[in-house]
Amino acid sequence: RAETPTNFIRQIIDRDLAEGKHDGKVVTRFPPEPNGYLHIGHAKSICLNFSIAESYGGVCHLRFDDTNPETESEEYVEAIQRDVAWLGWQWHGEVRYASDYFDLLHDCAVELVRLGLAYVDTQRPEEIARQRGDFTTPGQDSPFRERPVEESLALFARMRQGEFEEGEAVLRAKIDMRSPNMNMRDPILYRIRKKTHHQTGDKWCIYPMYDFTHPISDAVEGITHSLCTLEFEAHRPLYDWTLDKLEGFLASRDSIPARPRQYEFARLNLNYTVTSKRKLKQLVDEKYVSGWNDPRMPTISGLRRRGYTPAAIRRFCDMVGVARADSVVDMGMLESAVRDDLNATAPRAMCVLKPLKLVIENWPEGHVEMLSAPLHPQNEEMGSREVPMAREVLIDQADFQEQANKKFKRLVLGDEVRLRYGYVIRATEVIRDAAGEISEVRCTYDPETLGRNPEGRKVRGVIHWVSAEHSVPCEVRMYERLFTEASPDRMEEGVLSVVNPESLQVMSECRVEPALAGASPGSRFQFEREGYFCVDEDSEPERLVFNLTVGLRESF
Ligand code: ATP
Ligand code: MG
Ligand code: MG
Fold first, then answer.
1. CA distance 239 to 237
2. Rounded to the nearest whole angstrom, what is the distance from the C-alpha of residue 45 to the centroid of ligand 1?
3. Other C-beta atoms within 10 Å of 529: how many?
4. For residue 32, which ligand has an atom nearest its CA?
5. Domain parsing of the chain, residue ranges
6. C-alpha 62 – ligand 2 centre gap (Å)
């Protein structure tokens, strides 16, 4: 595996290790919330966390940040594990869950109350929100801020027993209602949710907030560098406050190898798509796409089904790099990463998307000749395949014109073209159906031209083809970008208003060379002159379905 380029986080780690911090160990974590499928933005975070662990001889944990039972599910838990593993990363030990620490988190909350650093607020949520103020106005203290410790302890116990309904009480940290940082204005630590949790069932009806859960989970796992996206920068003081106040308590419960530090990096934004689980879920729920793994989705599972390779996605993440400045990456960069990878690795094949029949009149009836074609033009080691040639062949409708000037490097009536890996043919006559459409083209072939140029003539070009009798029928799904606008997020009418109605075009009469019969879902090919394609999971033994992964050239 190529070494990942350095970045400001690696430089921080280099310095930490040089200063002898963390006993020379590096422990990172990837902490997804199981409320949707992972997308390309998550891939950046995954590659960052796992590649750092790998380069420094450390480990990376996979931890589900599962503190919100309403929106989370086991389906997402499973999909996320599949996607991380598919990208080629191995998390250290068992999968972890923030919910594994619910007992500890509860005890930490009780400890903060005991220390006089947290209190139960029994005001309505709207009232609490109103008192919080905003960036221009300082907050106001809750009337319950000075509630005696014993009273808060008793109320918190009753919250836990289910004696309050949702919204009737919360546990808040007592920090500073006048802080310029909104996150420090007595943030909520625990709230009531009477929901069954996918891991803990009905054991709990109070759930800890992310900002309280995260530092404690990091600390008990011995995370050294807790990497998150820039929007958490203003949460860092609360992260540190929580660990400062609980340091002694945590040390008495666990032996903590290192005090974790949070560092922030810029999210990945990609044009012509969205990287927000909420918006992607809306596309799924409202059936704009067939599911989370629709090949047009920027999800890891969608990209996988589209034919992307783990190597291409990792390479893309390296190209994007890690910085603190927000930017929008061009979709063309992701496409070129997979194109470069498949150009080197995908076996070649011929597939005719819109067939036009040619009858080669001087080819003997019933005669079949097996032609040999390399699987990769630049890599002999990949070997070759046999391509049958017979009297009737299919070419693409776009590769024939009755009349054309010299720029048309394909078949023209009265002129010659080479069938790739085969013979030079000449079109002699056009046959039409009752509606006047061309139904076939009569041709002749020159038997002296296999692997040899004809003498004294120049053919117009080389086109791909398949044998009519031997080729295999298939469906090809052609994709364009899912959105017609570069910044769907910025649309006033919402992202759904700019979904590209032509993002999927199904070609149902395609024919592929017989060597591909029985190809298994996920196999990738270059269809010569068309692009890179992969076998879709909807394929049946008698009818393959292919997805366009990416065209041969940048098309935008
Ligand atoms: P979304 O906004 O899509 O719901 P999220 O940040 O809420 O994303 P999480 O499941 O909490 O999703 O994310 C897990 C990790 O992935 C977090 O550390 C988060 O910062 C990171 N992450 C999420 N989206 C991106 C992105 N676009 N670029 C880089 N990292 C991301
Ligand atoms: Mg999150
Ligand atoms: Mg989110």
1. 5
2. 7
3. 17
4. 1
5. 8-270, 277-345+474-512+517-550, 349-471
6. 14
Tell which residue, 355, 340, 348, 306, has the closest CA to residue 504: 306
Which atom number of ligand 1 is nearest to the Cα of residue 34?
Answer: 10
pTM over 0.80: yes
The CATH label, of 1.10.10.10, 3.40.50.720, 2.40.240.10, 3.30.43.10, for the domain at 349-471 is 2.40.240.10
Which candidate, 209, 116, 211, 213, places its Cα nearest to that of 170? 209
- Look at residue 556 and tell me whether its pLDDT is greater than 60: no
For residue 299, the 8-state DSSP code is B
Residue 303: both structure tokens together: 């990209």
> Candidates 7, 40, 42, 52: which one to mutate for ligand 1, based on the most atoms within 8 Å of Cβ?
42
**Residue where the block lists tokens 């990949």:** 382
From 145, 151, 156, 210, select the one nearest 178 (Cα to Cα).
Answer: 145
- In the beta sheet, which residues pair with residue 120? 171
Tokens 């004696």, located at residue? 163
* Cα distance between residue 185 and residue 235, in whole Å: 11
Helix axes 210-220, 102-114, angle to 10 degrees: 110
* 298 CB near ligand 1 (under 6 Å): no
Q: How far is CA 127 from CA 51, 133, 189, 190, 392, in A?
A: 45, 11, 17, 17, 79
Homologous superfamily assigned to 8-270: HUPs (3.40.50.620)
Helix (H, G, I), strand (E, B) or coil at 534: strand
Q: Does residue 23 surpass a pLDDT of 90?
A: no
Domain 277-345+474-512+517-550 has CATH 1.10.3720.10: no
- Coil/strand/helix, residue 403: coil
Q: Would you give the distance in Å from CA 513 to the centre of its chain?
A: 31
Ligand nearest to the Cα of 210, by number: 2
Assess contact for 338 and 518: CB atoms under 8 A. Answer: no
Task: Report pLDDT for 258.
Answer: 65
- The tokens describing 542, both together, are 């008698």
Quick: pLDDT tens for 136-160. 999 999 999 999 999 999 999 999 9
